Amino acid sequence: MAELDADLGHIIPSSVLAPFWAKLVVGFVSLVCFARSYDGDFVFDDSEAIINNKDLRAETPLGDLWHHDFWGSRLSSNTSHKSYRPLTVLTFRINYYLSGGFYPMSFHVVNILLHGGISVLMVDVFSVLFGGLQYSSRGRRLNLAPRSSLLAALLFAAHPVHTECVAGVVGRADLLGALFFLLSFLGYCKAFRESNKEGTHSTFWVLLSILLGAVAMLCKEQGITVLGLNAVFDILVIGKLNVLEMVQKVLHKDKSLENLGTLRNGGLLFRMTLLASGGAGVLYMRWKIMGTGPPAFTEVDNPASFADSMLAINYNYYYSLNAWLLLCPWWLCFDWSMGCIPLIKSAGDWRVIALAALWFCLIGLICQALCSEDSHKRRILTLGLGFLIIPFLPASNLFFRVGFVVAERVLYLPSAGYCMLLTFGFGALSKHTKKKKLIATVVLGILFINMLRCMIRSGEWRNEEQLFRSALSVCPLNAKVHYNVGKNLADKGNQTAAIRYYREAVRLNPKYVHAMNNLGNILKERNELQEAEELLSLAVQIQPDFAAAWMNLGIVQNSLKRFEAAEQSYRTAIKHRRKYPDCYYNLGRLYADLNRHVDALNAWRNATVLKPEHSLAWNNMIILLDNTGNLAQAEAVGREALELIPNDHSLMFSLANVLGKSQKYKESEALFLKAIKAHPNAASYHGNLAVLYHRWGHLDLAKKHYEISLQLDPTASGTKENYSLLRRKLEQKQKKDV
């Protein structure tokens, strides 16, 4: 490979070719590209995988990680996505423990450092792929292609398509999977470190490579594909198999085929057996752990896999889009589903040109990889294609349906193959042109533009508003993009703008039940109950097991005084989601409105059993028992609630009211004061404490807190009336004293 390296001499200066300096430059570039994301928020899928994932919390036994999916659901559940990545979740849990909570900076810093480490490892990997595997007499691997490996590693480190993996915390699965993938490959290379004779190897390193491949799979599913890459590398580099020569001999029934050294190599056959059996064993265990078979995805997740016709053409179009993202990573989007990429429905669609171009390039590369007389060229092209294609296979829909259309994160490892092929292309171009400075300028320009794009894209991933809005220009037909922009606006209180985006999401996808549910919620809050009911009714008609929509429909029907329909909606929601504390809470409110007090108390008790920290349910129980004269029971419930939620000021307030009525003034006073300390601007807290002092006979203190309460809420009629009574009482007392 000295020839290719010489062709790149005008691009890569010899001063950075020393291994230490080369790795330092690559590591520095990788950190510069994505450093902007270090103080970003948790965005998009981070909420479900991290903030809402109970597997990160100390109270969840570590053993549960091995029975749950990436999102914290049990693998045996029919709703599980079957994404089994326990080692990635374990690193999240360690992050959470070391940082003392959900502080995103520590999570982001780990991701950035992981990408830096992987980029540095890529220097070693590319040196093997470009230069072959040779060791010195002391057993140290020789880097026979320092320029090629450095340029390819720089292209990898600064590729913008990696932003999702690095800037999005859930991308750690891909980073960890890639890390152990590369370690497995380099470990496999070490199996031949002490080989002086052809066919000899270290079985220990082969087995360790298989183990590292299994670890990679426990971080991200595609990690297991390293075993396939190891096999290709062994056959082509170690076994020196010439595929074209072998095919020609088979076609011509050449008797010399029987003496082909590669096929008679016992060591190679043994290693292939180890890789095949190891891979089969790991995949079998993975299948057993999944429990109920593959996950069930919907047409929205992957429309091409549900298409009645043109299935192969649409899949190939998806491949061409992935290739385009590697070639020109300027149009990036956090989500490519929900109509972002309309299906090709006829062969006359102009987009067929894209997949034709893809296969034209691939067939050309394959022909060169097989037919070139240059053995180095054959090896580099074959390994480059192998690194490009093999890690992508699990996302290709060829073996099973996947839950996405295009996903930038799955290109993290395949991009290494692309960078290898691009580097080879630059070398070949430089060899056949005299304008070497122009080639150098182009290469450096691509690196600079990619670094700039990485920094810009990392900034977009810092918060959800920028991330979601950045997708509007890339995927304007994506209903999920409009939904997420609307949700972000709603969370910030801008309901008017949120409604506009939710309506657009429903227009683009008339079956988008989550958008209907959220839009219905906002309309409910704005008292536009009729349209809210229509939307929520349509949502549950489209998806009858949508528990949240059933509950929200019940709330709207309750507001419309359609109590029987509301109760039925609540019951249906609980039928589809048995552990639904919020629905029990709302059902209890319905029963309270109907004066079905026992049913209300039972519903709220169910809510607190399912969710012991459900403050609203506890409060309503205390208030209902208080209002119905059951002071002893109200006191018992209040004390039980405060044991579970000791710092909830609203519970302190409710229990203080009960204790005051029970003439336990001292204890009531202590709770009122504690509640006021936690929430000093609550007018009702001061007003009710004033009532307590009024009853207790501490009139000066009562006067003080009445006045504070009226300063905070001058319109409180009850407080005004009580204050007037107190003033008259004080005036009468003063007259008596005179």
Automatic annotation (TrEMBL):
Its EC number is 2.4.1.109. Pathway: Protein modification; protein glycosylation. It is a multi-pass membrane protein. It is an enzyme of class 2 (transferase). It is found in: Endoplasmic reticulum; Membrane. Residues 293-363 form the DUF1736 domain. TPR repeats lie at residues 479-512, 513-546, 547-580, 581-614, 683-716. Keywords: Endoplasmic reticulum, Glycoprotein, Membrane, Repeat, TPR repeat, Transferase, Transmembrane, Transmembrane helix. The chain crosses the membrane at residues 20-38, 112-132, 169-189, 201-218, 224-247, 352-371, 383-404, 410-429, 438-456. One of its GO terms (biological process) is endoplasmic reticulum unfolded protein response. One of its GO terms (cellular component) is endoplasmic reticulum. InterPro entries: O-mannosyl-transferase_TMTC, TMTC_DUF1736, TPR-like_helical_dom_sf, TPR_rpt. One of its GO terms (molecular function) is dolichyl-phosphate-mannose-protein mannosyltransferase activity. Its main location: endoplasmic reticulum. PROSITE patterns: TPR. Belongs to the TMTC family. Transfers mannosyl residues to the hydroxyl group of serine or threonine residues. The 4 members of the TMTC family are O-mannosyl-transferases dedicated primarily to the cadherin superfamily, each member seems to have a distinct role in decorating the cadherin domains with O-linked mannose glycans at specific regions. Also acts as O-mannosyl-transferase on other proteins such as PDIA3. This is Protein O-mannosyl-transferase TMTC4. It comes from Puma concolor (Mountain lion). The lineage of its organism: Eukaryota, Metazoa, Chordata, Craniata, Vertebrata.
